[in-house]
Specification:
By secondary structure, the protein is of the alpha/beta class. It has two domains: about 1-90, no CATH class; about 145-254, 2-Layer Sandwich (Zincin-like). It has helices spanning about 65-70, 70-90, 130-135, 135-165, 200-210, 220-230, 235-245; strands spanning about 1-5, 5-10, 15-25, 30-35, 45-50, 50-55, 100, 105-110, 120, 125, 170-175, 180, 185-190. The strands form three sheets. Strands 1-5-6-4-3 form a five-stranded mixed beta sheet, covered by helices on one side. A hairpin with a 4-residue loop joins β12 and β13. The radius of gyration is 20 Å and the shape is globular.
């Protein structure tokens, strides 16, 4: 059995529909879903801020509830962790004067006449016409998305040369808790919310996914390859584990 992670290995997206169920684990009722996946080679439990999913190979004859019971303490510990995340989620106001993180530093939000939204003089300056056409929230998200495509492409190109791999393309995605992914066709997927994280953390996510183009599993060799590129990568792993709530855009992410 493998467990979930905010970073994924090289996979494709062929899955079958989920089924909602519940199980009692050490006296605690836990709601979960079962999903059959054509790409899963072994059963796993995915847990994130939205809940518990047991992922099974499509031809597997495995009792998902038994799998949960075997990993009951781990499941309940992860659930407690994400409950804490929900409680710590920032209550952001989408209005001028509010402060939002950008590359790990907080910046005041300003709305003003300008040709494009950008960071200038320590402030996130949103184009007034973009706000008028939608909202502060939408204009800010679009700003992060545009910045993510440019920044992450630059970092991916840089680290791909270091690692000695070639990727297919980059997709900027709206996943709630997964920061990066790598498909079997070489497509790298990145969460636009990463633009709120420090640069070294973003580099770790990029290197993590690029390394999957050489090693699909999280084997000792995989981590050794990452360490060759980023000797201090453990600090970024720790940061993501302890500070993921800082990357929650707003309550709708929960």
């Amino acid at each position: 059995m493998t467990s979930s992670s905010t970073l994924s290995g090289c996979t494709s997206s062929r899955t079958m529909s989920s089924e909602a169920r519940s199980a009692t684990l050490i006296g605690t009722e836990v709601g979960y879903k079962v999903r059959k996946s054509a790409d899963a080679t072994q059963p796993r439990i995915d847990i994130d801020i939205r809940g518990v999913v047991v992922v099974l190979p499509e031809d597997a004859e495995i009792d998902p509830e038994e799998l949960l019971r075997e990993n009951a303490y781990w499941v309940l510990d992860k659930q407690d962790k994400y409950q804490t995340y929900r409680e710590q989620a920032p209550d952001r106001r989408f209005e001028p004067g509010e402060r939002f993180p950008y590359l790990g530093e907080t910046h005041e939000l300003v709305v003003e006449p300008r040709q494009k939204s950008e960071v200038v003089d320590g402030m996130i300056r949103l184009r007034r016409s973009a706000v008028a056409q939608s909202s502060v929230k939408r204009a800010l998200e679009n700003f992060y998305r545009r910045e993510a495509r440019e920044y992450l492409t630059d970092r991916a190109d840089h680290h791909a040369d270091e690692i000695g791999v070639e990727y297919g393309k980059i997709e900027i995605r709206n996943q709630r808790t997964k920061w990066g992914s790598c498909s079997t066709t070489g497509t790298l997927g990145f969460n636009w919310r990463l633009m709120m994280a420090p640069p070294e953390v973003i580099d770790y996510v990029v290197v993590h996914e690029l390394t999957h183009l050489r090693e699909q599993s999280h084997s000792p060799k995989f981590w050794s390859l990452i360490e060759q590129i980023l000797p201090q990568y453990h600090e970024s792993v720790k940061w993501l584990d302890q500070n993921s709530t800082k990357l929650i855009f707003d309550k709708s992410d929960l």
